[in-house]
Design a protein that fits this description.
By secondary structure, this protein is of the alpha/beta class. It contains eleven helices and 17 strands. It has two domains: 275 residues, Ribonuclease Z/Hydroxyacylglutathione hydrolase-like (Metallo-beta-lactamase, Chain A), CATH 3.60.15; 36 residues, no CATH class. An eight-stranded mixed beta sheet has the order 1-7-6-5-4-3-2-17. Strands 8-9-10-13-14-15-16 form a seven-stranded mixed beta sheet. α10 packs parallel to α11. The structure holds zinc ion. Zinc ion binds next to α2. The site of zinc ion has 8 residues, from α2.
């Protein structure tokens, strides 16, 4: 196990790096109950499969069964983000790591969270003494901001408002290059290959005695996707800002509005509060999750949220949803 600070590689300017400019994105709910599981709902965990990579948010106890059912793959490139150190959000890490080892995972696994994530893993692995076949890099988060920056997306965190330190996360893709107009490039007599690539990446080129601007053959940059995950929290204006314009927001909705006092007492949100925040933040699609075990039916929660926000759905264990590009 290595210890390192959340690392930020600064070599890529926002919006400039094309990399592979298209990646499928799918969100898969692995656990949607709060505090105690029910027959239908496991403890908190949400996966975002993006291209060949998996981003996992929280690992409540027993989540690995749904992870396996969803066929997400134990040996793929993966980052795990822990929102906070309540057992229904982190205890499942131990079983997941052990299963990965038993299946011979070799790739390094990156785990992100507050300082006690490191301590939790170290102590449990010392006591349970299980053998790992791969390295774990634990990235300790000490403040709000960027926790991961890859070629074409970043993950940021924002302090949530819960009974213990808790982070909300946002996955945000950088702009993709605009559409390349091959017809126009041909008309300008530019040969295919390297010059196409330069133009596509925003570079103006010289062809013969002529200057060809990238903007002559490439359309305006295309927006990437933004997906937010609340973890456990009361709603507040910081989170509203943090989740501004999310294409998809997964927000905790532990209670219905008639349990407002309980929500305040336990540092959670009601469905109405989740919807108000999502509406104020300009969120396109809201998924409610982290339901109190008292709700056999989540329709009451969806109905009250839907009276505030026009695009609301309840998360369910193993529900998988494609997230298309905004254009
Ligand atoms: Zn919780």
């Amino acid at each position: 196990m290595h210890l390192s600070r959340a690392s930020v590689h600064d070599q890529h300017k926002f919006g400039m790096e094309a990399g592979s400019s298209v990646a499928n994105m799918q969100i898969v709910f692995l656990g949607t109950s709060s505090a105690v599981p029910t027959a239908e709902r496991g403890l908190s965990s949400v996966a975002i499969a993006r291209g060949s990579e998996l981003l996992l948010f929280d690992a409540g106890e027993g989540m690995q069964r749904n992870f396996i059912k969803a066929g997400l793959g134990m040996n793929r490139k993966m980052k795990i983000f822990i929102s906070h150190m309540h057992s229904d959000h982190c205890v499942g890490l131990l079983g997941l790591l052990q299963t990965m080892a038993l299946q011979g995972r070799e790739r390094t696994l990156d785990i992100y969270g507050e300082p006690r994530v490191q301590e939790f893993l170290r102590e449990n692995m010392r006591i349970i003494n299980f053998f790992l076949t791969f390295n774990i890099d634990v990235h300790t988060i000490e403040k709000d901001g960027v926790v991961v920056r890859e070629n074409d997306y970043e993950v940021r965190c924002c302090s949530a408002n819960h009974s213990i330190p808790s982070y909300a996360y946002c996955v945000e893709e950088f702009d993709r290059p605009g559409v390349f107009d091959v017809g126009e490039a041909k008309k300008l007599g530019i040969p295919e290959g390297e010059l196409y690539s330069k133009l596509q990446h925003g570079e103006d080129i010289r062809h013969g005695d002529r200057l060809v601007k990238s903007s002559q053959v490439v359309g305006p940059p295309r927006k990437g996707r933004k997906v937010g995950i609340s973890g456990d929290t009361r709603p507040n204006t910081e989170l509203e800002r943090f989740f501004q314009n999310c294409d998809v927001l997964v927000f905790e909705s532990t209670y219905s509005r008639d349990k407002q006092e309980k929500a305040i007492e336990n540092w959670h949100s009601t469905a109405t509060e989740a919807a108000v925040l999502a509406k104020n933040a300009g969120v396109k699609k809201l998924f409610l999750t982290h339901f109190s075990a008292r709700y056999n039916e989540t329709s009451v929660l969806v109905d009250e949220a839907a009276s505030v926000h026009e695009n609301v759905e309840a998360a369910e264990d193993l529900k998988a949803v494609e997230i298309p590009y905004p254009d």
